[in-house]
Amino acid sequence: MKKLLINEGNLTPDDIHGTETRVKAFLRNNNNEVLLLHNNYTYQLPGGHNLKDESLEESLKREVQEETGIEVNNDIEPFMMIREYNKNFLDTDKNVCNTIYYYDIENDNLPDGSKLNLTELESRTKIKYFYIKIDELEEFVLKEKKDNRIEDMIAKELLEAIKEYKLLLGGRD
Question: pTM of the prediction?
């Protein structure tokens, strides 16, 4: 598994006030397209926060089902971990260490709105689903970042994960 540390604020572990652990899925269909969500005015991969008593795999399966209605039954392992030290995380005056685990999941099931279990925040705006060819994903994220339609932090992390994802897939994209 590739591990990457992003620490633009040059923070030390002593500067950190809290931690967040999240999981994200590259849900890939047999057409080599990846599912992206658009919700709360930004694009992102399906996934979310790891709960206290869950394994990473349990968290990912739960989050994918809650946000897409797609059940994941595969055994899964992360292919990348990004750890980012964030200064003044979300304007809270807190420095937070975010750790995100990325997974590759082959699944041809389509999102099913009847099986969603969204948080209050996720329910504020309608979720839109997009399938994008893997070889077009990086260009898409860069364009959306330039046009301010994806949060900078999400774009930065996603661009790093896309690079590793393409290496993982080798000639399959």
Answer: 0.90
